[in-house]
Amino acid sequence: MAEPNPDKLPKSRPTARFKLLAVLLGVAPFVALEIGLRLLGIGAADSAADPFAGFGSNIPVFEREGATWRTSDKRMPFLPQQSFAADKPANGFRAFCFGGSTVHGRPYEADTAFPKWLELELQATLPNRAVEIINCGGVSYASYRIVPMLREALAYEPDLIVVATGHNEFLEDRTYHSLKSRSSTRSWIDNLGERIRAVQVGRRLLRKQPASDQSGNPDRDGDFETRLDTENGYASYHRDADWHTRVMEQFQEAMETMVRLCQEKGVPLILVNLGSNVRDCPPFKSEHRADLTSIDELRWNEGFDRADAAERSGDLETALAAYREAAKIDDQHALLHWRIARCLDRLGRPDDAKAHYLRAKDEDICPLRMFDRQYQLQAKLAAESGATLVDARAALESQSPNGIPGHDWYLDHVHPTIGGHQEIARATAVKLRDSGLLPEQTTWNVDARRDAYAAHFARLGPVYLGNGRRRLEWLEGWANRNQLLKETLPVDARGYLHAGFRYLDFGETTKAKAASKQALEMDPGLQTALDAREEQLHDQGRRVDLQ
Prior knowledge:
CATH architecture of the largest domain: 3-Layer(aba) Sandwich
CATH class of the largest domain: Alpha Beta
Order of helices and strands: HEEEEHHEHEHHHHEHHHHHEHHHHHHHH
Number of strands: 8
Oligomer: single chain
Structural class: alpha/beta
Number of domains: 3
Strand content: 5-15%
């Protein structure tokens, strides 16, 4: 028999076992790297920013810790630290409150935000229920960031969802279309990658890391950047109707999604219409209309300067006439409307003044306060969906002189005073009872509420109000308030009175007394308003003597 030719023998093929071994040998270095990173504690997701802007499922709001759910460390410092029972009590009432820095409690902390006062109110008026009000207010969070958070919260057996949002919609110059339109497979792959330590380390090595947070905010995480956090952020805001339209569409989409999610789970929803400071807050940035010619701009500036000089001299009628002549040339300049409003306000024409204050807010090129069409949208959504609407804006306007809120109820452009938060909490509790969502509420008399508020303040300590002042100073720098410093200074008796109220909200009693004294010297008739504020502070749990 002839010997077989080796070259003509069939070649053996790799076995399945051999193929598997080759694959394992190929991935072994990556597995070893992953194990090593985990053993060394490197690349943990807790220290990473959320690259999916809140649209990924990799950044939970809460993490299980024994018998408790608590706010995830990776959500700090944007969300306040909160906790609630993993096993909901049989008699429990659990609500989650979502929104931006107002819900968070800025410039203070969550201890004086309206969710905390609502919790105290319901604990007192629902003695047979175990009340848990969880604050999910995210600093600088707009509505699109709230949607995935709310979806998660619906898994924790809530009895109520509260949403108070709208002021932060224009903070980021992104539309997130590519993130929101991802397929479920792409989302799964992206989220898996976020759990791999090597991916986390690689991202940090490749991306540009800020050397430090230059904003001056002691609580700011440099990985989450709004337009105002960037060096040219303020300058980047310009009149842009198309961008406004896209952002408003996104806001409507987010609000409608939140309503739908609550409806699908059968969880009652409260929408809170937040208000803003229009009387003591000039617009952040003003621009002329795009088609204004250089000649007309010169004429406008000359008229504005004449009006400014007349207003400073106290000739308000002449100033008003000159401002209105400028408006005939260009009526889209936000500061012009605010100046007209201030003159009308001082002349005792509050209805006309309020209309121009609101126009100034809505013409603001750097819109850090809700537009009126956002209020209208939320009211329409509530009416069509059956959601409950709490009109916090109207509640604070009703307690402001002539219905125009300023520093009497707002610390800055949007953040309510502590008393303002208490008013929002009480309005929410009343709505819960009157709408039938919590009909078993008992009444909480004024003395008992005052004592509970005072006890709560005592637990906060002596530096609490001062820390709020420190954060507000950062916030005003962040929003370039120095650009219009002279506009924020008091020009009349009411302005000095409200400046005194604002000093009190930060515990600066000496400055408050000086401002109040100046107000009374200019208008002794304000003594009644001063006495009323002292009584309000007493009801808020604080004893202050302004005399």
